[in-house]
Input
Amino acid sequence: MRADTAAAYVIRGARLAGGEVTDLLLRDGIVAERGTGLSGGEVVDAAGLLALPGLVDLHTHLRQPGREDAETVESGSRAAALGGYTAVCAMANTDPVADTAGVVEQVYRLGREAGLVDVQPIGAVTVGLAGERLAELGAMADSAARVRIFSDDGHCVSDPALMRRALEYVKAFDGVVAQHAEEPRLTAGAQMNEGEVSARLGLAGWPAAAEEAVIARDALLAGHVGSRLHVCHVSTAGSVEILRWAKGKGIRVTAEVTPHHLLLTDELASSYDPVFKVNPPLRTAEDVQALREGLADGTIDCVATDHAPHTAEDKECEWAYARPGMLGLETALGVVAKAMVETGLLDWAGVVDRMSTAPARIAGLDGHGGDLRVGAPANLVLVDPRSPWTVEPHGLASLSVNTPYTGLELPARVVATFLRGTPTVLEGKAQW
Ligand code: DOR
Ligand code: ZN
Output
């Protein structure tokens, strides 16, 4: 565990998302003072930098236990800190699956030991992600990890009766079921988005309807039982329309979109490079535009990375055999700046809402996602919005290298990240 007797820091002349330029004194883990001409700590020159609440990721695959060759809680925490995150929610599709209090407590403890971001475990909905019977949801909620989000991500809870029961069960402790929306009967053997490109390449298609049908069904179920539903990695224009309808009806549904679905399209599959294979698959330019608009108008609540590290063995092979998934933690902010800020669809206050405030609220994470007011926990990130950098897979902290952005220039860079007043990243450099 990192020492938490942090020195004090004066962040000098940073711009808050709302536009105000101020100094921030970080001491004893909180924002101790705000104003101009502050002293009392090591000075960090933040002229020209944005000071934002630390980012929060609702959807991170940390791979531990079981695939420590692809990522560990510690290496994933490093990637997260470098990406500007102060909290991540760790997906349950580990080996063993996080479907008991014992496993979620193990992940929680590993996160505490790494000490670089708050690692909040997600619990599986069904035993072994098999979709047959409910896991010990109550025991995971009562455990030291205090699990509130449950997901079989990687798999869809496709049985509607089981999904209904899960939604009813989590209501007792204000939990939420995060659904990987994919009707498996419609995606058997699928390799990429079903459309013109799949027809041209001769690869089996994953139709938009396989996602949209499950979102519509689950929204109706959530409305019927009055529970909270969260939809993982929304990827189609039709899904945005269904979410808009469900929210209009007052159904308690939230949704996330990944950075890659905001930037990349299925045309990339024509390279047959499995680095572009992901689930749900990259879609069309029209879908990308609808997702951007849905995120801008709040129909989609937040950005979540779906950071999915895979080893070379699992990824550098023939397209059909490659595992789906891409790295995301270290590039998310830059990709969102490119897709949403440079296009004028979101300002930085909007980015704060979609990458920090909204995900913290959905996950129920106290101490994250709030304003940087005096007395608040000093979880924050300093961003240089005008410092382009080029993605280089071996320059990333993840144990895996499956980034789809190799060689791409991103417009914004993380300069520093503070977790409860202690820098995990300073002047762009790791502090471990
Ligand atoms: O592309 C994906 N990879 N989608 C998922 O739902 C699971 C994830 C993984 O675990 O690799
Ligand atoms: Zn998923």
